From TrEMBL, chain A:
GO cellular component, one term: plasma membrane
Annotated compartments: Cell membrane
Name of the protein: Sugar ABC transporter permease
Entry-linked CDD domains: TM_PBP2
Organism: Bradyrhizobium frederickii
UniProtKB/TrEMBL annotation, chain B:
Membrane topology of this protein: Multi-pass membrane protein
Protein name as it appears in the record: ABC transporter permease
Gene3D superfamilies with a match to the protein in the record: MetI-like
Pfam families in the cross-refs: BPD_transp_1 (PF00528)
Chief localization: membrane
Transmembrane segments: 30-51, 89-116, 128-152, 164-188, 209-230, 272-294
The keyword Membrane is annotated on this UniProt entry: yes
GO biological process: transmembrane transport
Alphabetized SUPFAM superfamilies for the sequence: MetI-like
Keywords: Cell membrane, Membrane, Transmembrane, Transmembrane helix, Transport
Organism of provenance: Bradyrhizobium nitroreducens
Location of the protein in the cell: Cell membrane
Length: 312, 303
Protein backbone atom coordinates (compact mmCIF):
# COMPACT_ATOMS: atom_id res chain seq x y z
CA UNK A 1 0.00 0.00 0.00
CA UNK A 2 2.74 2.37 0.96
CA UNK A 3 4.64 1.83 -2.28
CA UNK A 4 1.60 2.66 -4.36
CA UNK A 5 1.00 5.70 -2.23
CA UNK A 6 4.48 6.98 -2.75
CA UNK A 7 4.45 6.85 -6.55
CA UNK A 8 2.89 10.29 -7.10
CA UNK A 9 5.29 11.85 -4.63
CA UNK A 10 8.26 10.26 -6.23
CA UNK A 11 7.23 11.35 -9.70
CA UNK A 12 6.62 14.83 -8.45
CA UNK A 13 10.02 14.96 -6.87
CA UNK A 14 11.77 13.50 -9.89
CA UNK A 15 11.17 16.37 -12.33
CA UNK A 16 12.90 19.18 -10.45
CA UNK A 17 15.26 16.68 -8.87
CA UNK A 18 18.34 18.62 -9.93
CA UNK A 19 17.25 21.65 -7.98
CA UNK A 20 16.15 19.92 -4.81
CA UNK A 21 18.78 19.05 -2.26
CA UNK A 22 19.14 15.52 -1.02
CA UNK A 23 17.84 16.68 2.35
CA UNK A 24 14.48 17.61 0.90
CA UNK A 25 14.36 14.32 -0.93
CA UNK A 26 15.09 12.50 2.29
CA UNK A 27 12.29 14.39 3.98
CA UNK A 28 9.88 13.12 1.34
CA UNK A 29 10.76 9.52 2.13
CA UNK A 30 8.26 7.67 4.26
CA UNK A 31 10.68 6.31 6.80
CA UNK A 32 12.24 9.73 7.35
CA UNK A 33 8.84 11.30 7.88
CA UNK A 34 7.85 8.54 10.25
CA UNK A 35 11.11 8.89 12.15
CA UNK A 36 10.62 12.64 12.53
CA UNK A 37 7.09 12.10 13.80
CA UNK A 38 8.27 9.71 16.48
CA UNK A 39 11.39 11.72 17.34
CA UNK A 40 9.81 13.75 20.20
CA UNK A 41 8.51 10.51 21.70
CA UNK A 42 11.92 8.84 21.42
CA UNK A 43 13.68 11.87 22.96
CA UNK A 44 11.18 12.02 25.82
CA UNK A 45 11.45 8.33 26.63
CA UNK A 46 15.24 8.27 26.34
CA UNK A 47 15.96 11.40 28.37
CA UNK A 48 13.26 11.29 31.01
CA UNK A 49 12.54 7.57 31.45
CA UNK A 50 15.42 5.38 30.28
CA UNK A 51 18.25 7.67 31.34
CA UNK A 52 16.90 8.19 34.91
CA UNK A 53 16.16 4.47 35.16
CA UNK A 54 19.77 3.55 34.40
CA UNK A 55 21.04 6.51 36.37
CA UNK A 56 19.34 5.13 39.47
CA UNK A 57 21.42 1.95 39.05
CA UNK A 58 24.50 4.14 39.20
CA UNK A 59 23.12 6.20 42.09
CA UNK A 60 22.53 3.06 44.11
CA UNK A 61 26.26 2.35 44.15
CA UNK A 62 27.30 5.69 45.73
CA UNK A 63 27.63 6.73 49.34
CA UNK A 64 25.37 9.29 51.00
CA UNK A 65 27.32 12.36 49.88
CA UNK A 66 27.48 10.83 46.38
CA UNK A 67 31.22 11.21 46.09
CA UNK A 68 32.46 7.71 46.73
CA UNK A 69 31.70 4.45 44.95
CA UNK A 70 30.58 1.86 47.48
CA UNK A 71 29.53 -0.92 45.11
CA UNK A 72 26.81 -2.98 46.71
CA UNK A 73 27.35 -1.32 50.10
CA UNK A 74 23.89 0.25 50.14
CA UNK A 75 22.26 -3.12 49.55
CA UNK A 76 24.36 -4.77 52.23
CA UNK A 77 23.31 -2.02 54.61
CA UNK A 78 19.63 -2.51 53.71
CA UNK A 79 19.77 -6.28 54.14
CA UNK A 80 21.01 -5.82 57.69
CA UNK A 81 18.18 -3.50 58.68
CA UNK A 82 14.99 -4.91 60.17
CA UNK A 83 12.97 -2.01 58.83
CA UNK A 84 13.86 -3.01 55.28
CA UNK A 85 12.51 -6.53 55.71
CA UNK A 86 9.43 -5.06 57.37
CA UNK A 87 8.90 -2.88 54.30
CA UNK A 88 9.35 -5.85 51.96
CA UNK A 89 6.81 -7.87 53.93
CA UNK A 90 4.33 -5.00 54.11
CA UNK A 91 4.62 -4.17 50.43
CA UNK A 92 3.81 -7.76 49.51
CA UNK A 93 0.92 -8.02 51.99
CA UNK A 94 -0.44 -4.66 50.87
CA UNK A 95 -0.24 -5.34 47.14
CA UNK A 96 -1.49 -8.93 47.18
CA UNK A 97 -4.37 -8.39 49.61
CA UNK A 98 -5.50 -5.18 47.97
CA UNK A 99 -5.40 -6.63 44.44
CA UNK A 100 -7.21 -9.77 45.56
CA UNK A 101 -10.05 -7.82 47.15
CA UNK A 102 -10.24 -5.34 44.29
CA UNK A 103 -10.52 -8.21 41.81
CA UNK A 104 -13.12 -10.00 43.90
CA UNK A 105 -15.28 -6.94 44.56
CA UNK A 106 -14.90 -5.80 40.97
CA UNK A 107 -16.02 -9.21 39.72
CA UNK A 108 -19.06 -9.34 42.00
CA UNK A 109 -20.17 -5.77 41.32
CA UNK A 110 -19.70 -6.23 37.58
CA UNK A 111 -22.08 -9.19 37.72
CA UNK A 112 -24.69 -7.21 39.63
CA UNK A 113 -24.48 -4.34 37.17
CA UNK A 114 -24.67 -6.79 34.27
CA UNK A 115 -27.75 -8.42 35.84
CA UNK A 116 -29.98 -5.36 35.95
CA UNK A 117 -31.86 -4.05 32.88
CA UNK A 118 -29.59 -2.27 30.40
CA UNK A 119 -31.55 0.95 30.81
CA UNK A 120 -30.41 1.54 34.38
CA UNK A 121 -26.87 0.27 34.00
CA UNK A 122 -25.40 3.61 32.97
CA UNK A 123 -26.58 5.32 36.14
CA UNK A 124 -25.16 2.64 38.45
CA UNK A 125 -21.92 2.40 36.55
CA UNK A 126 -21.62 6.17 36.79
CA UNK A 127 -22.00 6.14 40.56
CA UNK A 128 -19.73 3.17 41.14
CA UNK A 129 -16.87 4.65 39.12
CA UNK A 130 -16.70 7.87 41.15
CA UNK A 131 -13.86 6.65 43.46
CA UNK A 132 -11.64 6.15 40.44
CA UNK A 133 -12.31 9.68 39.16
CA UNK A 134 -11.49 11.64 42.32
CA UNK A 135 -7.76 12.35 42.62
CA UNK A 136 -6.53 9.80 45.20
CA UNK A 137 -4.76 12.48 47.21
CA UNK A 138 -8.09 14.29 47.69
CA UNK A 139 -10.19 11.25 48.52
CA UNK A 140 -7.58 9.93 50.94
CA UNK A 141 -7.96 13.19 52.87
CA UNK A 142 -11.65 12.40 53.25
CA UNK A 143 -10.75 8.92 54.53
CA UNK A 144 -8.23 10.44 56.93
CA UNK A 145 -11.02 12.59 58.30
CA UNK A 146 -13.36 9.59 58.50
CA UNK A 147 -10.61 7.80 60.47
CA UNK A 148 -9.77 10.79 62.71
CA UNK A 149 -8.76 9.60 66.21
CA UNK A 150 -11.16 11.88 68.11
CA UNK A 151 -13.87 12.84 65.59
CA UNK A 152 -14.09 9.66 63.51
CA UNK A 153 -17.49 9.41 61.86
CA UNK A 154 -17.09 5.64 61.69
CA UNK A 155 -16.47 5.34 65.41
CA UNK A 156 -19.46 7.61 66.03
CA UNK A 157 -21.67 5.28 64.00
CA UNK A 158 -20.18 2.11 65.50
CA UNK A 159 -20.66 3.40 69.04
CA UNK A 160 -24.42 2.91 68.55
CA UNK A 161 -23.77 -0.79 68.05
CA UNK A 162 -21.62 -0.89 71.17
CA UNK A 163 -18.39 -1.31 69.26
CA UNK A 164 -15.63 0.58 71.01
CA UNK A 165 -13.56 3.29 69.35
CA UNK A 166 -11.33 1.65 66.75
CA UNK A 167 -7.80 3.14 66.39
CA UNK A 168 -8.08 3.22 62.57
CA UNK A 169 -4.64 4.67 61.95
CA UNK A 170 -3.13 4.41 65.41
CA UNK A 171 -2.63 0.66 65.77
CA UNK A 172 -0.34 -1.29 63.41
CA UNK A 173 -2.88 -3.96 62.40
CA UNK A 174 -5.75 -1.49 62.02
CA UNK A 175 -3.55 0.96 60.12
CA UNK A 176 -2.65 -1.78 57.63
CA UNK A 177 -6.31 -2.64 57.31
CA UNK A 178 -7.25 1.01 56.73
CA UNK A 179 -4.60 1.52 54.07
CA UNK A 180 -5.76 -1.59 52.23
CA UNK A 181 -9.41 -0.58 52.60
CA UNK A 182 -8.79 2.82 51.02
CA UNK A 183 -6.82 1.22 48.22
CA UNK A 184 -9.59 -1.28 47.56
CA UNK A 185 -12.14 1.54 47.57
CA UNK A 186 -10.08 3.43 45.04
CA UNK A 187 -9.15 0.52 42.77
CA UNK A 188 -12.21 -1.76 42.70
CA UNK A 189 -14.12 0.43 40.18
CA UNK A 190 -11.36 -0.11 37.62
CA UNK A 191 -11.83 -3.86 37.86
CA UNK A 192 -15.59 -3.44 37.73
CA UNK A 193 -15.40 -1.48 34.48
CA UNK A 194 -12.94 -3.88 32.87
CA UNK A 195 -14.95 -6.95 33.88
CA UNK A 196 -18.21 -5.36 32.81
CA UNK A 197 -16.78 -4.61 29.37
CA UNK A 198 -15.64 -8.20 29.00
CA UNK A 199 -18.90 -9.64 30.41
CA UNK A 200 -20.75 -7.80 27.69
CA UNK A 201 -18.59 -9.43 25.04
CA UNK A 202 -19.49 -12.96 26.14
CA UNK A 203 -22.07 -14.20 23.61
CA UNK A 204 -25.52 -14.91 25.10
CA UNK A 205 -25.77 -18.19 23.17
CA UNK A 206 -23.14 -19.71 25.44
CA UNK A 207 -25.30 -19.04 28.50
CA UNK A 208 -28.39 -20.32 26.71
CA UNK A 209 -26.58 -23.50 25.78
CA UNK A 210 -25.35 -23.90 29.36
CA UNK A 211 -28.87 -23.31 30.72
CA UNK A 212 -30.29 -25.92 28.36
CA UNK A 213 -27.66 -28.37 29.56
CA UNK A 214 -28.90 -27.70 33.08
CA UNK A 215 -25.91 -25.76 34.42
CA UNK A 216 -26.47 -23.95 37.70
CA UNK A 217 -25.21 -20.43 38.34
CA UNK A 218 -21.88 -21.64 39.71
CA UNK A 219 -21.25 -23.85 36.69
CA UNK A 220 -22.19 -21.00 34.38
CA UNK A 221 -19.55 -18.81 36.02
CA UNK A 222 -16.92 -21.52 36.23
CA UNK A 223 -17.32 -23.03 32.75
CA UNK A 224 -18.54 -20.10 30.67
CA UNK A 225 -17.79 -16.71 32.21
CA UNK A 226 -14.35 -17.32 33.66
CA UNK A 227 -12.82 -19.00 30.60
CA UNK A 228 -14.18 -16.21 28.38
CA UNK A 229 -12.84 -13.52 30.70
CA UNK A 230 -9.56 -15.22 31.52
CA UNK A 231 -7.39 -12.91 29.46
CA UNK A 232 -8.97 -9.70 30.77
CA UNK A 233 -8.77 -10.92 34.34
CA UNK A 234 -5.07 -11.70 33.90
CA UNK A 235 -4.23 -8.36 32.31
CA UNK A 236 -6.27 -6.31 34.78
CA UNK A 237 -4.84 -8.10 37.78
CA UNK A 238 -1.26 -7.72 36.61
CA UNK A 239 -1.85 -4.05 35.78
CA UNK A 240 -3.31 -3.43 39.17
CA UNK A 241 -0.50 -5.36 40.83
CA UNK A 242 2.02 -2.95 39.32
CA UNK A 243 0.05 0.14 40.27
CA UNK A 244 -0.71 -1.08 43.79
CA UNK A 245 2.81 -2.22 44.42
CA UNK A 246 4.11 1.20 43.42
CA UNK A 247 1.41 3.07 45.34
CA UNK A 248 2.46 6.22 47.13
CA UNK A 249 -0.39 8.71 47.64
CA UNK A 250 -2.67 6.67 49.87
CA UNK A 251 -0.10 5.41 52.36
CA UNK A 252 1.70 8.74 52.45
CA UNK A 253 -1.39 10.75 53.30
CA UNK A 254 -3.19 8.26 55.47
CA UNK A 255 -0.40 7.08 57.79
CA UNK A 256 2.88 8.47 56.37
CA UNK A 257 4.28 5.01 57.09
CA UNK A 258 3.39 5.05 60.76
CA UNK A 259 2.75 3.84 63.41
CA UNK A 260 6.43 2.94 63.84
CA UNK A 261 7.02 2.18 60.14
CA UNK A 262 4.32 -0.51 60.25
CA UNK A 263 2.58 0.66 57.05
CA UNK A 264 5.59 1.76 55.01
CA UNK A 265 5.77 0.31 51.53
CA UNK A 266 8.63 0.68 49.04
CA UNK A 267 7.54 3.99 47.56
CA UNK A 268 6.85 5.78 50.84
CA UNK A 269 9.99 4.43 52.50
CA UNK A 270 12.12 5.42 49.52
CA UNK A 271 10.62 8.92 49.76
CA UNK A 272 11.28 9.07 53.49
CA UNK A 273 14.92 8.05 53.07
CA UNK A 274 15.76 9.61 49.71
CA UNK A 275 13.98 12.97 49.79
CA UNK A 276 13.16 13.69 53.44
CA UNK A 277 16.33 12.07 54.79
CA UNK A 278 18.35 13.35 51.77
CA UNK A 279 20.15 10.03 51.38
CA UNK A 280 19.46 9.84 47.64
CA UNK A 281 21.58 6.73 46.89
CA UNK A 282 19.93 4.69 49.64
CA UNK A 283 16.48 5.85 48.52
CA UNK A 284 17.30 4.86 44.95
CA UNK A 285 18.41 1.41 46.13
CA UNK A 286 15.14 0.95 48.00
CA UNK A 287 13.00 1.82 44.98
CA UNK A 288 15.10 -0.49 42.80
CA UNK A 289 13.69 -3.42 44.76
CA UNK A 290 10.39 -2.82 43.02
CA UNK A 291 11.97 -3.64 39.64
CA UNK A 292 11.95 -7.47 39.78
CA UNK A 293 8.26 -7.68 40.64
CA UNK A 294 7.32 -5.00 38.12
CA UNK A 295 9.41 -6.74 35.46
CA UNK A 296 7.76 -10.12 36.02
CA UNK A 297 4.29 -8.56 35.86
CA UNK A 298 5.25 -6.58 32.76
CA UNK A 299 6.49 -9.67 30.93
CA UNK A 300 3.23 -11.48 31.57
CA UNK A 301 1.13 -8.47 30.58
CA UNK A 302 3.07 -8.07 27.37
CA UNK A 303 2.57 -11.74 26.55
CA UNK A 304 -1.17 -11.48 27.18
CA UNK A 305 -1.59 -8.23 25.29
CA UNK A 306 0.26 -9.62 22.29
CA UNK A 307 -1.78 -12.81 22.40
CA UNK A 308 -4.91 -10.70 22.45
CA UNK A 309 -3.63 -8.68 19.53
CA UNK A 310 -3.05 -11.84 17.50
CA UNK A 311 -6.48 -13.23 18.28
CA UNK A 312 -8.22 -10.05 17.15
CA UNK B 1 -62.07 -26.03 50.83
CA UNK B 2 -61.22 -28.03 47.79
CA UNK B 3 -61.10 -24.88 45.70
CA UNK B 4 -58.50 -23.52 48.10
CA UNK B 5 -56.28 -26.53 47.71
CA UNK B 6 -56.50 -26.20 43.96
CA UNK B 7 -55.57 -22.55 44.29
CA UNK B 8 -52.60 -23.56 46.36
CA UNK B 9 -51.57 -26.22 43.95
CA UNK B 10 -51.77 -23.92 40.97
CA UNK B 11 -48.95 -21.62 42.01
CA UNK B 12 -46.66 -24.58 42.71
CA UNK B 13 -47.22 -25.78 39.18
CA UNK B 14 -46.52 -22.36 37.70
CA UNK B 15 -43.56 -22.00 39.97
CA UNK B 16 -42.15 -25.24 38.70
CA UNK B 17 -42.41 -24.24 35.08
CA UNK B 18 -42.03 -20.50 35.44
CA UNK B 19 -39.17 -20.71 37.93
CA UNK B 20 -36.78 -18.93 35.61
CA UNK B 21 -38.76 -15.71 35.66
CA UNK B 22 -39.21 -15.92 39.44
CA UNK B 23 -35.49 -16.58 39.89
CA UNK B 24 -34.75 -13.62 37.72
CA UNK B 25 -36.96 -11.35 39.78
CA UNK B 26 -35.18 -12.36 42.96
CA UNK B 27 -31.79 -12.08 41.33
CA UNK B 28 -32.79 -8.58 40.28
CA UNK B 29 -33.85 -7.60 43.78
CA UNK B 30 -30.60 -8.90 45.26
CA UNK B 31 -28.65 -7.11 42.55
CA UNK B 32 -30.28 -3.80 43.42
CA UNK B 33 -29.75 -4.40 47.12
CA UNK B 34 -26.03 -5.08 46.78
CA UNK B 35 -25.56 -2.35 44.21
CA UNK B 36 -27.05 0.12 46.66
CA UNK B 37 -24.63 -1.09 49.33
CA UNK B 38 -21.66 -0.72 47.00
CA UNK B 39 -22.85 2.67 45.78
CA UNK B 40 -23.04 3.90 49.39
CA UNK B 41 -19.53 2.58 49.98
CA UNK B 42 -18.28 4.32 46.83
CA UNK B 43 -19.94 7.64 47.46
CA UNK B 44 -19.33 7.83 51.20
CA UNK B 45 -16.06 9.83 51.16
CA UNK B 46 -17.18 12.46 48.62
CA UNK B 47 -20.51 12.89 50.43
CA UNK B 48 -18.71 13.22 53.74
CA UNK B 49 -16.45 15.83 52.16
CA UNK B 50 -19.53 17.81 51.18
CA UNK B 51 -21.13 17.48 54.62
CA UNK B 52 -17.99 18.62 56.45
CA UNK B 53 -17.35 21.45 53.99
CA UNK B 54 -20.69 22.98 54.95
CA UNK B 55 -19.91 23.04 58.67
CA UNK B 56 -18.28 25.79 60.68
CA UNK B 57 -15.18 25.00 62.77
CA UNK B 58 -17.28 25.45 65.92
CA UNK B 59 -19.76 22.82 64.77
CA UNK B 60 -16.98 20.38 63.87
CA UNK B 61 -15.23 20.70 67.23
CA UNK B 62 -18.56 20.38 69.07
CA UNK B 63 -18.58 16.74 67.84
CA UNK B 64 -22.30 16.62 67.07
CA UNK B 65 -23.66 14.00 64.66
CA UNK B 66 -20.96 13.95 61.96
CA UNK B 67 -23.43 12.83 59.28
CA UNK B 68 -25.67 15.87 59.51
CA UNK B 69 -25.20 19.62 59.09
CA UNK B 70 -27.15 21.57 61.71
CA UNK B 71 -26.04 25.07 60.75
CA UNK B 72 -25.02 25.02 57.07
CA UNK B 73 -22.56 27.73 56.20
CA UNK B 74 -20.51 28.64 53.15
CA UNK B 75 -17.74 30.25 55.18
CA UNK B 76 -15.20 27.56 54.20
CA UNK B 77 -15.87 28.11 50.51
CA UNK B 78 -15.72 31.89 50.90
CA UNK B 79 -12.54 31.57 52.94
CA UNK B 80 -10.76 29.42 50.37
CA UNK B 81 -12.00 31.14 47.22
CA UNK B 82 -10.89 34.54 48.51
CA UNK B 83 -7.51 33.30 49.69
CA UNK B 84 -4.81 34.24 47.19
CA UNK B 85 -2.77 31.23 48.18
CA UNK B 86 -5.52 28.74 47.36
CA UNK B 87 -6.35 30.47 44.10
CA UNK B 88 -2.65 30.31 43.25
CA UNK B 89 -2.68 26.52 43.76
CA UNK B 90 -5.73 26.22 41.58
CA UNK B 91 -4.16 28.40 38.90
CA UNK B 92 -0.89 26.40 39.00
CA UNK B 93 -2.79 23.13 38.69
CA UNK B 94 -4.87 24.41 35.78
CA UNK B 95 -1.81 25.79 33.99
CA UNK B 96 0.21 22.61 34.43
CA UNK B 97 -2.67 20.37 33.33
CA UNK B 98 -3.51 22.41 30.23
CA UNK B 99 0.11 22.61 29.10
CA UNK B 100 0.72 18.94 29.80
CA UNK B 101 -2.37 17.93 27.82
CA UNK B 102 -1.20 20.05 24.88
CA UNK B 103 2.36 18.72 24.98
CA UNK B 104 1.10 15.15 25.33
CA UNK B 105 -1.19 15.42 22.33
CA UNK B 106 1.46 17.10 20.17
CA UNK B 107 3.91 14.31 20.93
CA UNK B 108 1.69 11.25 21.04
CA UNK B 109 -0.71 11.76 18.10
CA UNK B 110 1.97 12.03 15.36
CA UNK B 111 3.98 9.27 17.00
CA UNK B 112 0.94 6.98 17.20
CA UNK B 113 0.13 7.72 13.55
CA UNK B 114 3.67 6.84 12.48
CA UNK B 115 3.71 3.68 14.58
CA UNK B 116 0.27 2.52 13.45
CA UNK B 117 0.54 3.25 9.73
CA UNK B 118 4.06 3.93 8.53
CA UNK B 119 6.04 0.79 9.22
CA UNK B 120 9.70 1.60 9.48
CA UNK B 121 12.82 0.03 10.92
CA UNK B 122 12.24 -0.64 14.60
CA UNK B 123 8.63 0.54 14.68
CA UNK B 124 7.31 -2.66 16.26
CA UNK B 125 10.00 -2.57 18.93
CA UNK B 126 9.27 1.08 19.61
CA UNK B 127 5.54 0.36 20.04
CA UNK B 128 6.34 -2.36 22.57
CA UNK B 129 8.78 0.00 24.26
CA UNK B 130 6.08 2.64 24.58
CA UNK B 131 3.84 0.13 26.29
CA UNK B 132 6.59 -0.92 28.67
CA UNK B 133 7.30 2.71 29.56
CA UNK B 134 3.66 3.06 30.50
CA UNK B 135 4.18 0.31 33.06
CA UNK B 136 7.06 2.14 34.79
CA UNK B 137 5.53 3.80 37.85
CA UNK B 138 6.33 7.27 39.14
CA UNK B 139 7.60 5.91 42.44
CA UNK B 140 10.47 4.20 40.64
CA UNK B 141 11.68 7.31 38.84
CA UNK B 142 11.22 10.16 41.26
CA UNK B 143 14.59 9.87 43.00
CA UNK B 144 16.79 9.61 39.88
CA UNK B 145 14.68 12.28 38.12
CA UNK B 146 15.15 14.63 41.06
CA UNK B 147 18.90 14.09 40.91
CA UNK B 148 18.95 14.49 37.11
CA UNK B 149 17.19 17.85 37.33
CA UNK B 150 19.44 18.96 40.20
CA UNK B 151 22.52 18.09 38.12
CA UNK B 152 21.01 19.85 35.11
CA UNK B 153 20.67 22.96 37.25
CA UNK B 154 24.30 22.71 38.36
CA UNK B 155 25.63 22.27 34.86
CA UNK B 156 23.62 24.85 32.98
CA UNK B 157 22.71 27.30 35.70
CA UNK B 158 19.03 26.97 34.73
CA UNK B 159 17.32 26.15 37.99
CA UNK B 160 14.22 24.03 37.31
CA UNK B 161 13.66 22.47 40.71
CA UNK B 162 11.06 24.29 42.80
CA UNK B 163 9.50 25.92 39.74
CA UNK B 164 6.02 24.83 38.72
CA UNK B 165 7.08 24.49 35.07
CA UNK B 166 9.49 21.66 35.89
CA UNK B 167 6.31 19.55 36.04
CA UNK B 168 5.78 20.21 32.33
CA UNK B 169 8.86 18.11 31.63
CA UNK B 170 8.02 15.37 34.10
CA UNK B 171 4.29 14.75 33.70
CA UNK B 172 4.59 13.76 30.01
CA UNK B 173 6.58 10.71 31.12
CA UNK B 174 3.30 9.49 32.64
CA UNK B 175 0.83 10.68 30.02
CA UNK B 176 2.63 10.28 26.67
CA UNK B 177 3.22 6.50 26.74
CA UNK B 178 -0.41 5.72 27.60
CA UNK B 179 -1.88 8.22 25.14
CA UNK B 180 0.41 6.98 22.36
CA UNK B 181 -0.56 3.43 23.15
CA UNK B 182 -4.31 3.96 22.98
CA UNK B 183 -4.00 6.19 19.92
CA UNK B 184 -2.06 3.41 18.16
CA UNK B 185 -5.03 1.17 18.90
CA UNK B 186 -7.57 3.67 17.59
CA UNK B 187 -5.54 4.50 14.48
CA UNK B 188 -4.92 0.84 13.69
CA UNK B 189 -8.68 0.21 13.73
CA UNK B 190 -9.28 2.73 10.93
CA UNK B 191 -9.74 0.90 7.61
CA UNK B 192 -6.71 1.16 5.32
CA UNK B 193 -8.99 2.08 2.37
CA UNK B 194 -9.59 5.51 3.91
CA UNK B 195 -5.98 6.62 3.92
CA UNK B 196 -5.26 4.87 0.61
CA UNK B 197 -8.05 6.92 -0.97
CA UNK B 198 -6.64 10.11 0.54
CA UNK B 199 -3.14 9.40 -0.71
CA UNK B 200 -4.34 8.53 -4.20
CA UNK B 201 -6.08 11.91 -4.21
CA UNK B 202 -2.69 13.47 -3.56
CA UNK B 203 -2.78 14.07 0.16
CA UNK B 204 0.52 14.16 2.00
CA UNK B 205 1.11 12.14 5.14
CA UNK B 206 0.48 15.20 7.23
CA UNK B 207 -2.83 15.89 5.47
CA UNK B 208 -3.85 12.26 5.89
CA UNK B 209 -3.28 12.66 9.61
CA UNK B 210 -5.12 15.93 10.07
CA UNK B 211 -7.94 15.43 7.55
CA UNK B 212 -8.66 11.72 7.94
CA UNK B 213 -7.16 10.17 11.05
CA UNK B 214 -7.81 12.86 13.64
CA UNK B 215 -11.50 13.35 12.70
CA UNK B 216 -12.19 9.62 12.43
CA UNK B 217 -10.39 8.78 15.69
CA UNK B 218 -11.86 11.76 17.53
CA UNK B 219 -13.47 9.63 20.29
CA UNK B 220 -10.08 8.09 21.01
CA UNK B 221 -8.50 11.52 20.98
CA UNK B 222 -11.03 12.80 23.51
CA UNK B 223 -10.46 9.75 25.71
CA UNK B 224 -6.70 10.31 25.59
CA UNK B 225 -7.12 14.02 26.37
CA UNK B 226 -9.30 13.26 29.37
CA UNK B 227 -6.78 10.72 30.59
CA UNK B 228 -3.88 13.16 30.26
CA UNK B 229 -5.85 15.82 32.11
CA UNK B 230 -6.93 13.51 34.93
CA UNK B 231 -3.42 12.18 35.45
CA UNK B 232 -1.79 15.59 35.53
CA UNK B 233 -4.49 17.02 37.77
CA UNK B 234 -4.24 14.17 40.27
CA UNK B 235 -0.47 13.64 40.32
CA UNK B 236 0.84 13.96 43.87
CA UNK B 237 4.31 12.41 44.17
CA UNK B 238 6.18 14.51 41.59
CA UNK B 239 4.98 17.92 42.78
CA UNK B 240 5.68 16.85 46.36
CA UNK B 241 9.28 16.07 45.42
CA UNK B 242 9.97 18.86 42.96
CA UNK B 243 8.21 21.91 44.40
CA UNK B 244 8.40 23.32 47.91
CA UNK B 245 7.73 27.09 47.86
CA UNK B 246 4.08 27.85 48.51
CA UNK B 247 3.70 29.94 45.35
CA UNK B 248 4.88 27.03 43.14
CA UNK B 249 2.64 24.28 44.53
CA UNK B 250 -0.18 22.57 42.68
CA UNK B 251 -3.52 21.85 44.29
CA UNK B 252 -3.15 18.41 45.96
CA UNK B 253 0.24 19.22 47.49
CA UNK B 254 -0.85 22.75 48.34
CA UNK B 255 -3.87 21.57 50.32
CA UNK B 256 -1.85 19.03 52.25
CA UNK B 257 1.12 21.23 53.06
CA UNK B 258 -0.61 24.51 53.85
CA UNK B 259 -3.99 23.57 55.31
CA UNK B 260 -2.46 21.04 57.69
CA UNK B 261 -0.36 23.16 60.01
CA UNK B 262 1.55 20.90 62.33
CA UNK B 263 -1.01 19.05 64.37
CA UNK B 264 -3.79 21.54 63.72
CA UNK B 265 -6.21 20.19 61.15
CA UNK B 266 -8.74 22.72 59.94
CA UNK B 267 -11.01 19.98 58.66
CA UNK B 268 -13.75 22.23 57.29
CA UNK B 269 -11.30 23.96 54.98
CA UNK B 270 -9.39 20.78 54.13
CA UNK B 271 -12.59 19.05 53.01
CA UNK B 272 -13.68 22.12 51.04
CA UNK B 273 -10.28 22.24 49.35
CA UNK B 274 -10.39 18.53 48.60
CA UNK B 275 -13.88 18.83 47.14
CA UNK B 276 -12.88 21.80 44.97
CA UNK B 277 -9.79 19.87 43.90
CA UNK B 278 -11.90 16.85 42.97
CA UNK B 279 -14.46 19.00 41.13
CA UNK B 280 -12.77 19.46 37.70
CA UNK B 281 -12.28 15.74 37.00
CA UNK B 282 -15.75 14.99 38.40
CA UNK B 283 -17.38 17.59 36.17
CA UNK B 284 -15.56 16.29 33.09
CA UNK B 285 -16.55 12.78 34.08
CA UNK B 286 -20.21 13.76 34.52
CA UNK B 287 -20.38 15.07 30.97
CA UNK B 288 -18.01 12.73 29.15
CA UNK B 289 -18.45 9.47 31.05
CA UNK B 290 -18.47 7.29 27.94
CA UNK B 291 -15.17 8.66 26.67
CA UNK B 292 -13.73 8.24 30.12
CA UNK B 293 -14.71 4.59 30.22
CA UNK B 294 -13.53 4.04 26.66
CA UNK B 295 -10.09 5.34 27.61
CA UNK B 296 -10.03 3.22 30.73
CA UNK B 297 -10.84 -0.03 28.95
CA UNK B 298 -8.67 0.77 25.92
CA UNK B 299 -5.51 0.87 27.99
CA UNK B 300 -5.30 -2.82 28.59
CA UNK B 301 -7.11 -4.10 25.54
CA UNK B 302 -5.36 -2.50 22.59
CA UNK B 303 -7.94 -0.05 21.28
Amino acid sequence: MADVALQPNRVGAAQPARKRSSLQKALKRKSTAAFLMTLPLIILITLLVLYPAFYSLHLATLNKSMQRFVGLGNFEFLFKRDTFWLVVKQSCIFAITAVLFKALIGFIVAHFVHNIPAKGQRKWRGMLLVPWVIPPAMSTLAWLWLFDPSYSAFNYTLSFFGIGPIPWTGDAAWARFSVILVNVWYGAPFFMIMYLASLKSVPDQLYEAAAIDGANWWQRIWYVTLPMMRNIIAITTLFSLIVTFANFDIVRILTAGGPLDHTHIFATWAFRIGIEGSDIPLGASVSLFMVPILAIAAIFILRDVNKRGNEA
Amino acid sequence: MSSVTIDKAAPTRTVKYGSMSRDRKWALRWSYFFLTLFAIFSLLPPIYMLITSLKSSAEISAATNPWWVFHPTLENYVGLLTSNQFLRFFWNSALVSIFVVTITMLISVPAAFALARMRFWGSATLATGVFLTYLIPDSLLFIPLFKVFALFGDWTGIQLINRWYVLLFIYPTLTVPFCTWIMIGYFASIPKELDEAAIIDGASWFQTLTRIFIPVALPGLIAATIFAFTVSWAQFLYPLVFTTSTDQLVLPVGIITTLIKGDVFNWGQIMTGALLGAAPPLIIYAFLMDYYIAGLTAGATKG
